[in-house]
Amino acid sequence: MNTSNRKIEHLTLCATHEVESHRDDHGHRRTGFDDISFIHNALPQINMDKIETTIDFLGEQFAFPLLISSMTGGHPDTLEVNRALALAAEEMQIGIGVGSQRAALEDPALEDSFRVVRDSAPDIFVFGNLGITQIQEYGIEGVEQAVGMIDADAIAIHLNFLQEAVQPEGNTNALGGLELIRQVCQSMDIPVIVKETGCGISHEVAQVLCDAGVSAIDVGGLGGTSWAGVEVYRAKEQGAERCEGLGNLFWDWGIPTSVSVIESSISVPVIATGGIRTGMDIAKSLAIGASLCGTALPLIRPALNGSKEVVKRLRTMLEELKVVMFLTGYDNIEDLMQSRVVITGKTAKYLNERGYNTKHFAKR
Ligand SMILES: Cc1cc2nc3c(=O)[nH]c(=O)nc-3n(C[C@H](O)[C@H](O)[C@H](O)COP(=O)(O)O)c2cc1C
After folding, report:
1. Which of 105, 114, 160, 349 has the fewest other C-beta atoms within 10 Å?
2. Does 120 sit in the ligand 1 pocket, CB within 6 Å?
3. CA angle, 319 as apex, 317 and 323 as ends, to 5°?
4. Ligand 1 neighbour 221 (Cβ under 6 A)
5. 93: left (phi over 0), alpha (psi -120 to 50) or beta
6. What is the DSSP letter of 256?
7. What's the fold here for domain 3-363?
8. Can you spell out the DSSP letters for 35-73?
9. Residues of the chain whose pLDDT is less than 70?
10. Where exactly are the structural domains of the chain?
11. Closest residue CA from atom 5 of ligand 1
12. What is the pLDDT of residues 50-107, one digit of tens each?
């Protein structure tokens, strides 16, 4: 199957099937956010109407700390979806990433389905996207082409080796990836973001990425869209037993988003993505070290109905974030980022096993 057809198949599957990671035995989401609590402030001493949510990320202003994560483009039918997402991002003054631009490198006729994002969102942070395996193939020239295609403010390199391992047509040669990332960072004069796509980034990997010169890390952790899960549905349709078995086994593989945010907070800004569903998830991410959050899956169905629906969903998340800020007594994002949280349960145990002192977050 060619890249373009695969992109529309992925989008359709995500819009119509249950593709998130499963809840654990306690009914908790795998992100770990259900184990994180704010400390309620019964006397907040602020006016909720005066709460300020703007942030600065890599030199660009966002009206609140969220971006629309890389999803689509690369098939003619994705153009309207990207237009709806981009118009909404522009209206809300937040960032947006396009999906993998591989299809347009293979066939320039598909560039429009990506360019529509910049055309619809001239004033905001727009970033390009290529997988590490495509950079192996197309080199720095491919990256430059992807950036030029949408006048990108940054380029995201995605890591998706679980999906590659499960897919029948996957590329499982990961040799030289780190060196390639280092070369892209050296060659490009715009920020380079490295992002996972649902399995998270560990402290060890975050450290080598920082050393390689990346400008930001998007943890793309466990708890939201499961790409092993998506591939299970494709495998079922194709009667591909090996892939179906692998996809089911690895459906919930990875580092929970919250853990990954804590582990990756070393020296560059961290984006919390993977199961960000509410403004409370955003607030919790910021309180444990993220500079920004990203969300993908929840915006697909709204985007199929136009930008107004996307704006509605984004406004709900903003409203929820403001209520958390009000009830914890913080009237700006910088202060919220210093907020105390209590981490319990499996997430605390996991972090303790990895050598983190979770009490630190409650004492700040
Ligand atoms: C339909 C769909 C397509 C995606 N395509 C890409 C892609 O092309 N490149 C990429 O880096 N991530 C891609 N992602 C991953 C998202 O950017 C994000 O990391 C992941 O879905 C976790 O966020 P979520 O739980 O909010 O969906 C895609 C996600 C979805 C749902």
Report:
1. 349
2. no
3. 115
4. no
5. left
6. B
7. TIM Barrel (3.20.20)
8. GEEE---S---S-GGG-B--EEETTEEESSSEEE-----
9. none
10. 3-363
11. 71
12. 999 999 999 999 999 999 999 999 999 999 999 999 999 999 999 999 999 999 999 9
Q: What is the DSSP letter of 225?
A: B
Q: Which residues pair with 129 in a beta bridge?
A: 156
Distance CA 63, CA 55 (A): 7
Residue 49 Cα to ligand 1 midpoint, Å, equals: 33
Is the dihedral angle over the CA atoms 105, 19, 324, 344 positive or is it negative?
negative
The pair of structure tokens assigned to 60 is 């660009």
Q: How far apart are CA 204 and CA 233, in angstroms?
A: 32
Give yes or no for residue 215 CB within 6 A of ligand 1: no
% of the chain exceeding 70 in pLDDT: 100
> Phi/psi class of residue 45: alpha, beta or left (left: φ > 0; alpha: ψ in -120 to 50)?
left
- The residue whose C-alpha atom lies closest to atom 12 belonging to ligand 1 is 70
